[in-house]
Structures are given as structure tokens and as C-alpha cells.
Specification:
Helices cover 34% and strands 20% of the residues. It is α/β, with parallel strands linked by helices. The protein has a five-stranded parallel beta sheet. It starts with 6 loop residues before the first strand and ends in a 5-residue tail after the last strand.
Length: 98
């Protein structure tokens, strides 16, 4: 089994990674929160439905996935779900994004 190569990163690090191919930015906030504010190029996968949405939205388990929410709590939960599901390059924006 491969060891995960992700972890906690800063917003600045995440923005640098977004310029690389094969990177997906995922906002795990509610749809209402996402409508109020989200980062460019992010997709919304609310934490309440996250596990159910993953197989269709993120098919490649080697794809780089960057997760965020407003505080870092929900994105950390999503991070742990992806790791448990066998995803490899998973990153969490520590402290969230407001």
C-alpha cells in the first residue's frame, strides 16, 4: 500500500499547486456557503454528501486533491475520508479560507 504524499498546506502553497496539471480544488462547505464565497476553479462537494460524491467527481485516486472549508475542520474530515478511500495526493488547507 502506498503512503499518502499529502498533508496540511497553506493557502499560498495551494494556489501554487493549482497551476499544476491534474489538480482539483474542492470546497466542502454547504451549497449556501459556497454561493456566498469560494475560490476560483473550485468545485463544491458539501461534507454532508462528500463520500457519496467522490467516486463520480474524483475518479483518479492519483489525482492531486486540495480540500478547504472556512475553518479547516470539515476539510480535514474530508481529507481523512479520501485517505481511507485510497486517494494518494490529498492536501488540506490548514486553518481554512474565508
Amino acid at each position: 500500500m502506498k503512503k499518502n504524499r499529502g498533508g496540511n498546506i497553506s493557502l499560498k502553497q495551494a494556489m501554487g499547486m493549482m497551476n499544476q496539471r491534474n489538480t482539483i480544488l474542492v470546497d466542502v462547505k454547504s451549497e449556501d456557503e459556497y454561493a456566498q464565497f469560494h475560490l476560483n476553479r473550485s468545485i463544491n462537494m458539501p461534507i454532508e454528501n462528500f463520500k457519496k460524491m467522490v467516486p463520480k467527481a474524483i475518479k483518479n485516486k492519483n489525482q492531486r486533491v486540495i480540500l478547504y472549508c472556512s475553518s479547516g475542520t470539515r476539510s480535514l474530515a474530508a481529507y481523512e475520508m479520501l485517505i481511507d478511500m485510497g486517494y494518494y495526493y490529498v492536501y488540506n488547507i490548514a486553518g481554512g479560507v474565508e
